[in-house]
Sequence to fold (133 residues):
Amino acid sequence: MRSIYAAWERGDFSASDWADEEIEFAVIGGPNPGTSTGLAGMARLWAGVLNTFERAYSTVDEYRELDDERILVLYRNYGVGKVSGLEVSRLGATQASLFHLRDQKVTKLIIWWGRERALVDLGLGPESDAADP
Fold:
């Protein structure tokens, strides 16, 4: 994960050698939500997200190993909206990504444009605690 985010922190989103050929990819919320399967589908969906920004990059706040196959990464995106001209960081947005790993490849990647929603969806947020009897 650290090598993937090291590139993303430099604004380099071009590599995909870390992904399984049949990767399941989902973007929840944000400028271009959707799902895809396979490297070509992930590239199309990811390009749709990245093409809405200039000078896009990410910085990691925390890595959480959830179990032997899943790593949650909490991070912030930066960049300027091509249409709005707004700096993403000024919106106070924080994101989360969940990486599913098998045989040293990412087989599934879910990206949430709202960190709080990710934590709730994964049963790690305060709202999920309140739902327990």
In short: The radius of gyration is 15 Å. The CA atoms of residues 123 and 132 lie 10 Å apart. The chain is about 25% helix and 40% strand.
